[in-house]
Amino acid sequence: MRDSRGTHGCGADHYGRPVTVIATESLSKRYPRVTALDRLTVDVNPGVTGLVGANGAGKSTLIKILLGLSPATEGRARVLGLDVATDGAEIRGLVGYMPEHDCLPPDVSATEFVVHMARMSGLPPTAARERTADTLRHVGLYEERYRPMGGYSTGMKQRVKLAQALVHDPKLVLLDEPTNGLDPAGRDEMLGLIRRVHTDFGISVLVTSHLLGELERTSDHIVVIDGGKLLRASSTRDFTQETASLAVEVTDREQDLLVMLGAAGLTVQSSGHLLLVDMADEESYDLVRDAVAQLGVGLVRMEQRRHRIAELFTDDNPYGHPEDGPEGGPDDGPGDGPDSPAGDRAEEKSGTPAAPGTSQEGDGRDAA
Ligand SMILES: Nc1ncnc2c1ncn2[C@@H]1O[C@H](COP(=O)(O)OP(=O)(O)OP(=O)(O)O)[C@@H](O)[C@H]1O
């Protein structure tokens, strides 16, 4: 992942292989009443990347452009080094796609459907059947795979959708809200499966969610968009590490310690019986230790904590960094402005059923 600087297109290693699986430059998509993507520039490296944004943020629009199914209004994008404007068919041969909404014919079995999709991707009959059996086993569908899909649970349907995205052995899969409609256990299983798509098969994954926290454990990188704009793109580790804090518990005199650490230049908050000290650098440990010794109180514990990603996006600080918001600051970001995608979405997308467990009028809170 790189930030918005740098050259366009996929960089290449010294063997000429692309080191970015997706590269967009100033990519925009404007509908008559909505700007779905707004000059989005981002690179996605191999691995698992979470694309996070509230309902209407532009995630599905980006995926459709990347697949060459929908033309961008302006800007450019490359997938596996191929130009989405001209190489759509080739891209679709190398990429698997799991759509957001229910799209499975109810009268056929998972096996019949996935074999069909494999054949559509160009696999010969025997290979299509073998790959289908392997893929359905991988996603955890066994005897049920011979039953008509109309009787499947949401979790089983999501697994079939994942299987058909994998059956032709793609290099990259684009998974649009794969945890939609799943209960917490189902979500965990799906996220585990997605992780294994990369670790077991080396396939890169771009997975979308409107729930910021849920991709934290699954993704190597996180891209956050809102109103079609890029808010943040970095490794998951960077997201959480940079705001690490030190939880300090002492036997007594917490308030005195708080004042003392503040005077030493540290940012400290009181949280119940704990003091949470922002970790500016390694020296923060020494300052805490010295202050505790000087007060002569007992140190019960001192532990470094990472923030959960979701904590970084609050109403007060929607962009993770005060100085890191999109141009114009938070007031230009998510909101109810005339161009607000979230606000217009239900009307613009009428006819498209809301996925289970999501709201048509997303207010950004889920992702925030
Ligand atoms: N075909 C279309 N015509 C007009 N507007 C559209 C169309 N498709 C999407 N939009 C609008 O573009 C914006 C972005 O939609 P998109 O589906 O990409 O968001 P999303 O982040 O995938 O959200 P969700 O997961 O809820 O679908 C929304 O305001 C939506 O209403």
TrEMBL record:
Residues 22-252 form the ABC transporter domain. GO terms for molecular function: ATP binding. This is ABC transporter ATP-binding protein. Belongs to the ABC transporter superfamily. Gene3D superfamilies: P-loop containing nucleotide triphosphate hydrolases (3.40.50.300). It holds the Pfam family ABC_tran. PROSITE patterns: ABC_TRANSPORTER_2 (PS50893). CDD domains: ABC_DR_subfamily_A. SMART domains: AAA. InterPro entries: AAA+_ATPase, ABC_transporter-like_ATP-bd, P-loop_NTPase. Residues 325-334 have a biased composition (Acidic residues). The lineage of its organism: Bacteria, Bacillati, Actinomycetota, Actinomycetes, Kitasatosporales. Residues 311-368 are annotated as: Disordered. It comes from Actinacidiphila acidipaludis. Keywords: ATP-binding, Nucleotide-binding, Transport. PANTHER family: ABC TRANSPORTER, ATP-BINDING PROTEIN.
